[in-house]
Specification:
The complex is a heterodimer of chains A (335) and B (257).
Chain A: H1 3-11, H2 15-30, H3 34-59, H4 67-84, H5 89-111, H6 116-136, H7 138-141, E1 154-155, E2 158-159, H8 163-186, H9 188-198, H10 200-205, H11 210-236, H12 246-259, H13 265-276, H14 289-297, H15 299-313, H16 317-334
Chain B: E1 4-13, E2 16-26, E3 31-35, H1 42-49, E4 57-62, E5 65-66, H2 72-77, E6 80-82, H3 95-102, H4 111-115, H5 121-137, H6 153-165, E7 171-175, H7 183-198, E8 202-206, H8 210-216, E9 219-224, E10 227-232, H9 234-239, H10 241-248
Parallel strand pairs in B: 3-8, 3-9, 6-7, 7-8
Antiparallel strand pairs in B: 1-2, 1-4, 4-5, 9-10
Helix pairs in contact in B: 3-5, 3-6, 5-6, 6-7
Classes of the chains: A mainly alpha (335), B alpha/beta (257).
């Protein structure tokens, strides 16, 4: 194999990711606008959550109606540690990730004996319980009033307090997350997940420890949600319970469905598009305030319609469409 | 010493004893058949041995280790693989990828190591090569890139056998591998079974196709209503009075049936 060919083989799986990295780097050069960057921080945070949920739901086939709660656990943990206890930022983020993973583990152990609707109900119950905790544990979470003045990220004495800095930090982590998740999907655990989703008996017959796989995937997925939550808390500076409620969990699931099961690029694109939707004014200048207000009021309805449209017209989601385009492209090259 | 020793294995569903104190042995690199009328308990017996169902009584010893109570995936990793009466393939994946997944057994690849792709290359290469080899061994390499859902019925059965083989078993339990196959496909299957046995893998086959059973089996276990009613080489089983009664429902007198 020539070295050129080898390099090409090595790079091919990452082409999408490289394109995404270039796009991320280009944004601050094109527009240093504060509002645009802030909206894109939301997008980056959601991309991290969705990467984990695409692993759990899109590949391993396990439903979670409680992912917003894991984001909340991460956000409150890091905010409390750094703001109230003066812990270093990295410690806060690390603790947020670990605690969310632990929450995922605790939920996964009993819940993954359940399937389908029952798993959905169990995770939904978890989401509601955590929502009550976020509202009532006032000493830590600030209750319904929320928690403000959360310090900016700070790594080794370097305070990241500019919009561009926060944007680059969040998207750096998001791209790294996508890279790691992509690698997992291309290797043994990814194949095992596809097997598990297709038929659990078949997976068992291949010697796959399906119980262990489900628990690990759930914990990893929760950890990524916790990480995203911590980045959100420090990037935005204010958190309140309503951000981490059931409706947000449902939106996360909707994004993965629209993005397509068995795909990572699809859900990532869906996360970008659907998160941007209510903030369309950041990208399209000249949109009237009324239009934006309508879009924000109808946010949930737009997601619902997108989901219904996907289920009816493109059951494989954006990922399925991407795959079709790719196959057609390959066919043309060959002929 | 035998590779697999089944002793007094019993499974009750309410008032019905589906498997009733069944005992038998399987030796290394041998082919054994389990036959019996519908509902005799053959599939239940397979499920008990492979951990998909839990026995009420009795023991299963494989290569000196007790299997009862182990999870199905752990039993596969211990070297005892199986196929299903109703194939359990990964329908949206290609034939090659179906086998590739099973070839991961024994290769490194935890979450962390996969995430950073630390020293995965040789395992990935071996797995891919082994999957391709097993498609050739079972004679279905022409379908490597076909999705499982698009495969002809006979090929699906062979694919499930190839997938079970990829876990590097020392014993395979095949649940009705010839069901629904035509003559030519059955011939391909029989050739594959011999090749597999010659690779050092012992086989236990549940099968209704008596032509296949009588040709490939060195020994036959006959079940009726959960209990073992006969065991021996094909020629003796064909003449066995209890077996003929079970199959034909005839009472045999002293002067024959």
């Amino acid at each position: 194999m020539s070295s050129v060919k080898r390099i090409r083989l090595f790079i091919t799986p990452y082409l999408g990711l490289i394109a995404a990295a270039l796009a991320v780097a280009a944004v601050p050069l094109v527009t240093p606008d504060r509002y645009v960057l802030k909206v894109l921080v939301y997008v980056g945070v959601n991309v991290i959550v969705i990467a984990g949920l695409a692993l759990l739901f899109g590949h391993a086939g396990q439903i979670s109606m409680g992912h917003a709660a894991f984001v909340g656990i991460g956000a409150y943990t890091s905010a409390y540690l750094v703001k109230t206890l003066d812990a270093p930022w990295l410690v806060g983020v690390l603790a947020a990730t670990v605690l969310a993973a632990a929450g995922g583990l605790v939920l996964a152990l009993p819940a993954l004996r359940l399937r389908g609707h029952y798993l959905a109900m169990a995770t939904l119950g978890f989401s509601e319980i955590m929502y009550v905790v976020f509202r009532e544990a006032r000493a830590i979470t600030g209750g319904n009033d929320g928690l403000g003045g959360i310090p900016y990220p700070e790594v080794a004495g370097l305070k990241i307090d500019t919009p561009v800095g926060v944007y680059l930090l969040v998207w750096g982590v998001a791209l790294l997350t996508l890279l790691l998740v992509l690698n997992i999907l291309r290797s043994r655990p990814g194949r095992a997940m596809r097997a598990l989703q297709a038929t659990e008996n078949g997976a068992l017959a291949c010697g796959i420890d399906t119980v262990g796989l489900k628990i690990r995937t759930f914990a990893l997925s929760a950890a990524l949600a916790g990480l995203a939550g911590a980045l959100y808390a420090h990037g935005v500076g204010f958190i309140s319970p309503s951000t981490f409620g059931l409706d947000q969990s449902v939106i996360y699931m909707a994004i993965v469905v629209v993005g397509g099961a068995g795909s990572l690029a699809g859900p990532t694109l869906a996360a970008v598009v659907l998160t941007l939707l209510p903030y369309a004014d950041a990208l399209v200048p000249g949109l009237s305030k009324d239009t934006i207000a309508v879009m924000q009021d109808w946010e949930a309805d737009i997601y619902g319609l997108a989901m219904i449209a996907v289920v009816i017209f493109a059951p494989a989601g954006i990922g399925g469409l991407l795959k079709r385009i790719r196959l057609r492209g390959a066919g043309e090259v060959r002929s | 010493m035998s590779l697999l020793a089944v002793r007094g294995l019993t499974r009750r569903f309410g008032g019905l004893t589906a498997v009733d104190a069944v005992s038998f042995d399987v030796h290394e690199s041998s082919i054994k058949a389990v036959i019996g009328p519908n509902g005799a308990g053959k599939s239940t017996l397979f499920n008990l041995i492979t951990g998909f169902d839990r026995a009420d009584e009795g023991s299963v010893t494989f290569d000196g280790a007790a299997l009862v109570g182990k999870r199905p995936d752990a039993i596969v990793r211990a070297g005892l693989a199986r196929t299903f009466q109703n194939t359990e393939l990964f329908e949206d994946l290609t034939a090659l990828d179906n086998v590739r997944i099973a070839a991961d057994v024994g290769h490194p690849g935890g979450f962390l190591r996969s995430a950073v792709r630390f020293r995965l290359a040789s395992g990935e290469r071996d797995g891919a090569a082994r999957a391709a080899y097993l498609l050739r061994l079972t004679g279905i390499d022409g379908f490597a890139d076909t999705l499982a859902r698009d495969l002809p019925h006979g090929t699906r059965r062979l694919l499930e056998i190839a997938r079970a083989l990829a876990t590097a078993p020392r014993l395979m339990l095949l649940d009705e591998p010839a069901a629904g196959l035509n003559g030519a496909e059955t011939r391909t299957l029989i050739d594959a079974l011999y090749r597999i046995r010659d690779e050092g893998v012992a086989l236990v086959v549940v099968e209704h196709d008596m032509g296949l059973v009588m040709e490939v089996a060195e020994e036959i276990v006959v079940l009726d209503r959960g209990a073992k009613i006969a065991e021996g080489p094909p020629l003796l089983i064909q003449k066995d009075r209890a077996v003929i009664e079970a199959y034909l429902g005839e009472e045999c007198g002293d002067d024959g049936c």
